[in-house]
Amino acid sequence: MFRYLLASLLALTLATPAFAADARQSLERFFSEVSRFDARFEQLVINEQDEVLQASEGRVQLQRPGRFRWDYEQPFRQLIIADGQFLWTYDEELAQATAQPMERVLAGAPIMLLSEPRPLEQDFEVSVVGERGELNWVELTPRDRDADFTRILIGMDGDRVGMMVLYDQFGQQTRIRFSNMRINPSIPAATFRFEAPPGVDVIRH
Questions:
Q1: Are the beta carbons of 160 and 146 closer than 8 angstroms?
Q2: pLDDT of residue 9
Q3: Max CA separation in the chain (angstroms)
Q4: Residue 139's pLDDT is what?
Q5: Strand 96-101 and strand 86-91: pairing?
Q6: Contact status, residue 138 vs residue 128, Cβ threshold 8 Å
Q7: What is the spatial distance between Cα 158 and Cα 112, in angstroms, rounded to a whole number?
């Protein structure tokens, strides 16, 4: 799932130099100044024929480095937590949880773009795409040609990430739109710890 987790838009127009500078500077400020955020999200997975394969929504909380919580509320309950060492996936309907080492599962995954404090240029070629609607867009192309995704588009809403789109090697894209984002709020440490409810099967890899 995480290898299809981040986002942007199609058919973007070119920006003026002023908007170009603003978009890139806003993105760089976001990654340098934001250590935590709490937001609502809507996620769409779309195939090459522009058909929606999956639509979901929920809440995301993130704390750098290496901690996040994706709480899918609709259409099914699913919880994904990274606690700094392990990635936990809990399926409420199946009453099953799995734990896997983060370094093995998330190496190179797009979610680490948000959760790890490292310069964008270290892993991506960065270029400004332009302004469309209310967002200013920046494109990230992985330097690793064997990456599972071909590019990431990030739409900046002022100094906040408003939307992201990930394009994978198979032509599929995942769009995530953020709303009600709170920057650097106080987030309890327990948010990023998983405790299996009674009766839940826990599988460790």
A1: no
A2: 28
A3: 58
A4: 93
A5: antiparallel
A6: yes
A7: 22
Burial of 5 (0-12, 13-18, 19+ CB in 10 A): buried
Does CATH place domain 2-192 in 3.40.190.10? no
In contact, 100 and 194? CB cutoff 8 Å: no
Model confidence over 85-130: pLDDT tens digits?
Answer: 999 999 999 999 999 998 887 765 666 666 666 677 888 898 998 8
Tell me the whole-structure pTM to 2 decimals: 0.82
Order the strands of the 78-83 sheet from edge to edge.
124-132, 135-142, 149-157, 160-168, 173-183, 36-46, 52-63, 67-74, 78-83, 86-91, 96-101, 201-204
Calpha distance 117→135 (Å, rounded): 23
Task: Give every residue of the chain whose pLDDT is below 70, as ranges.
Answer: 1-21, 107-118
Query: In the chain, what are the domain boundaries?
Result: 2-192
- Whole-number pLDDT of residue 8: 32
Distance between CA atoms of residues 173 and 48, nearest Å: 8
- The H or E element that residue 31 is part of is helix 17-33
